[in-house]
Structure to design on (311 residues):
């Protein structure tokens, strides 16, 4: 009980801390995790269903995964999506593939078992049923020109339904897995194409009640970051106030001025040794690294497009 009270108090303290501080929501571009070497076209081959266990539920799950990946790729528009029939035909004929990369995958170790258990009450014995589904999804991303494997990954899934009095009330295996499979597909897409992420950058509350700092905080709340930056920098340059320098660097980060933000935050940290500044430096450096990787990926894509036009 005492431990639970401590956890609740900590949560309330964190909530109070962040509710008092100004913050800025920013959208950042994250690069794809895998380096697809500037690929502009992609194909998703139907996922196969190998193993001893066969059944329509297994086939439905395999079809759902491959079709979900393809529909999400078409919707995003980042790649030109090539129909898998053309790729399979080229693979059979051992001719050049019509795509830069392709995804192939399989459903492995699949089991779909319905268990019955008896419950005794005062009048009669009752039987209840539950569905247990387990499988492994494995996939590979392959270079369509060299046939080299760029990346592989796999994930295990396990689900158990609620108990039902009648077998026909049990959900299908696909129904049990669908939510997690959607997350799996979403994660896969983040590995192969850039995506936008929204995050919050928090300002520090000024304990000194400096009037200019308060004005800066108001500008942040209004979304006027340039005016807020001017206020914070003026206080930092004149008084060397830690919160002012920290907030100024954070606003630079929010404006996408990562190099300037890193330089100022390093200066603030070297002067104060504050742990918050050190943690902020790591976050800013992550943004610098991701921004650099994203730009390199785009340069490779542009180069690939240029080569296509030249041919």
């Amino acid at each position: 009980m005492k431990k639970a009270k401590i956890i609740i108090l900590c949560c309330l303290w964190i909530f109070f801390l962040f509710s008092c501080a100004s913050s800025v929501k920013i959208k950042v571009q994250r690069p794809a995790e895998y380096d697809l070497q500037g690929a502009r076209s992609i194909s998703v081959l139907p996922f196969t269903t190998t193993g001893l266990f066969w059944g329509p539920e297994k086939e439905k799950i395999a079809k759902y995964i491959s079709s979900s990946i393809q529909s999400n790729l078409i919707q995003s528009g980042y790649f030109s999506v090539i129909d898998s029939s053309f790729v399979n035909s080229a693979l059979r004929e051992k001719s050049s593939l019509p795509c830069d990369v392709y995804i192939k995958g399989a459903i492995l170790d699949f089991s779909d078992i319905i268990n019955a258990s008896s419950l005794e009450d005062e009048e009669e014995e009752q039987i209840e049923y539950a569905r247990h589904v387990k499988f492994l999804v494995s996939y590979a991303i392959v270079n369509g020109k060299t046939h080299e494997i760029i990346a592989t990954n796999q994930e295990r899934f396990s689900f158990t339904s609620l108990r039902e009095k009648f077998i026909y009330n049990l959900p299908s295996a696909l129904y049990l897995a669908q939510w997690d499979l959607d997350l799996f597909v979403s994660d896969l897409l983040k590995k192969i194409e850039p995506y936008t992420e929204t995050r919050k950058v928090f300002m520090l509350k000024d304990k000194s009640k400096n009037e200019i700092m308060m004005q800066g905080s108001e500008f942040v709340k209004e979304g006027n970051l340039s005016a807020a930056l001017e206020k914070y920098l003026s206080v930092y340059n004149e008084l060397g106030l830690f919160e002012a320098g920290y907030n100024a660097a954070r606003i630079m980060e929010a404006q996408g001025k990562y190099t300037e933000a890193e330089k100022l935050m390093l200066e603030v940290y070297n002067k104060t040794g504050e742990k918050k500044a050190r943690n902020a430096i790591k976050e800013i450096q992550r943004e610098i690294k991701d921004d650099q990787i994203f730009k390199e990926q785009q340069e490779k894509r542009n180069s690939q497009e240029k080569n296509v036009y030249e041919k």
Notes: The longest helix spans residues 275-310.
